[in-house]
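go over this record:
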Amino acid sequence: MSETARPGKLLLLVTGFLLWSSAFVVLYGVQGLGCRLGWDDVGLGPVSLNRGALLAVWALHVGLIAAMAAIQVRRRSADRGAADRGTAFIDRAGLALTFCALVATIWTGIPILTAGSTCS
């Protein structure tokens, strides 16, 4: 099996957007659950319980994707020179897609910070 065809290398191409889709689904689930249970009316310091839960989910996913990008950068630096052209392309594409997923996840969570209420 060539280095390029390893399943782990191919998984790196989609991991960032898998985490982004997880963030999207979990954020909508927590938002709906929080609104149904009235978490928007419960205070949690300076924010409501619903907004705090949404911020925690969002921060967790942003952190996971950023860690994934850091791992890919480190692996790419370690493999520089030893990788063939196909492997180098997959590494660059995986890193670019992970950064796109990071930006998309940050963009998805901006309404948590800017919306007046998390339930309206």
User: Anything to note?
Assistant: The longest strand covers residues 43-44. The mean pLDDT is 88. Helices lie at 7-37, 49-79, 85-114. Residues 7 and 16 are 15 Å apart (CA to CA).
